[in-house]
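Treating backbone geometry as a discrete language has practical consequences that deserve illustration. No coordinates are needed to read the tokens, only the vocabulary itself. For completeness, the protein is quoted in full, as a sequence line and a line of structure tokens:
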Amino acid sequence: MPPPRTRGTALRHRLAELRGPDVPAKALDARALAALAANPGCARRAILDGAGVNKAALASALGSPSAFGQSQFALTRGNAFEAKVKADGGAELLRLVHEKLDRSAEPPVDARVPDLTATGPRGRTARTELELREATAHPGAWTLLDHPMLALDVAGSPAFLEPDAVVVHPDGSWTVVEIKSFPLLDGSADPAKVGAAARQAAVYVLALEELAARLGAEPEAGAARLGVEPEGGAGAEGVTVPAPRVRHRVLLVCPRDFSNLPAASAVDIRKQRAVTARQLARLTRIEDIADTLPEGTCFSPELPAGELTAAVESVPATYAPECLSACELAFHCRTRSRQEGAVTSLGRPVRAELGGLTTVEDVLAAARGEAGDPHDPAVAALRRAAALRAEALEAACR
């Protein structure tokens, strides 16, 4: 008789059923996670991302193909620039970290660049944790982790994240490094692109903070296995070591002006980190959403269009115009939102001003005086606006 499945195993099995038979899971990266955190009320995106559904393939199967994503040329250029920055054991990258973030430390010479190769994302996550333990347990030297793998709990499901680099300073603190291909012109870059990079880096910082908290909660006996002597002697038990410090200033590395030479800027991401942490905490747990779905629900792009549409529509969405630059299903959700007359299709600021009026039909009826509580501030404002419009039109016709 097989052993009963644990809650985590049962959830993974359920999410695999939602993807469809033999459909591999699409990794949830930091860019998608930042976009998910920006729209925490969207259960549709939460369950699709949690299940690892390829939303681009899903959108195409629904007849509303996605129009966003990096071009192959941009990806090739970005990979070439990243390789240049990390050449020679990351000497230039570490120099920029020292110059922009830690001038008081000794210059990086003969830094450790450990091999993080392992099987699968869980193996790479364990390898990354081991190397961070090792680097933190032996302060005084620089360590560069090239493409480490981090895990972050998102609505009850683990997300595996891969930052460009994480640097361990001689004092044992950790810094996230983001390498982008957009240029720094005269020392500054496009604010929108910097903001997106900061939100992405904030996700990595949150994952590192979770790991640092776990390391700090472990007894020093565990650190002693890495060569650190516990305080109070080798027999000390139950004593914990301080959690490593995760720096809230990340390093953004971009090409200087129109060249391929690297330049860097320190970016304070405390605001983005706080917002992302708060939004992720608001996400409905993946298993709670899965439990509300009809039996046999599947999001495989191989299904007939009608069946697939019904499956997608069984999960409520919260569409806003901002989704167009962040979600592959945005065109499909926009069409449905317009068909339903939802005011969210006009933007979150408009939706916030309208209070309990959720459809365009409700708004127009309230403005005409046919519906709505006259004491409601939103209804009163709409009727006042309608009266002013009528006066203006009457005056124009005279």
About this structure: Strands lie at 143-146, 150-154, 157-161, 165-168, 174-179, 249-255, 262-268. Confidence is low (pLDDT under 50) at residues 1-5, 221-239.
